[in-house]
């Protein structure tokens, strides 16, 4: 079996469990839209040709972020339609209000208040796509192109943390007194879903979401390079981390090829 066939074989292995997010995010997805379960990351360390490894890594992950973004686009459109309907009618069906309340909770918006235009606006701001370029650059950076220990052992591509004893792997260099573990995911899909939800819901990435909204209001498509400005809190390296992610996006021409 050649290397490309080995990758293809791994792509069809499936599983059906969702893990916890860094902050124990709740992931509730429409089963009809869930991508095939990818159980484990292929062994990208066997590739000595850097260009080949990068291409296979991106080709492996791209369908998963496309699937997540398709769900976000669907839900964003539904929220917008419900907002328009509410403005005209002054009310919505109970099942629609229940769905909106569920979405507001999932995206850390708090109680959903239909009368508040700010609530509608913020929910629409949170339920939006993550540029593929940003996703691919962070995955490559955080997982060392899929070869890091946490990527190989825990399917953790984005350095996600969890805070329940036994929820993941204890970092060797964890400072005494700290309690976090590196989240262990049953499938690669779990890591992808929780990463996307984390950026769209956690308060520390408000700057990223506001930049995305600013670009949309200006009639421009959000790019990975532009939204990276909101990643200062993702790493202790702050501005240097943002610079590194942007450099990866530019060097690998990710915004040119995926947006």
Model description:
With 259 residues, the chain is mainly α. It has a single domain, classed as Lysozyme, CATH 1.10.530.10. The chain is built from 11 helices and 3 strands. It has helices at residues 3-11, 50-89, 94-106, 117-126, 132-143, 149-154, 188-201, 206-217, 224-227, 239-251, 254-258; strands spanning 161-162, 168-169, 181-183. It has a 3-stranded antiparallel sheet, with no helix packed on it. Helix 2 (50-89) crosses helix 5 (132-143) and helix 5 crosses helix 10. The longest helix is centred in the first third of the chain and has 40 residues, at 50-89. The model is unreliable at 1-34 (pLDDT under 50).
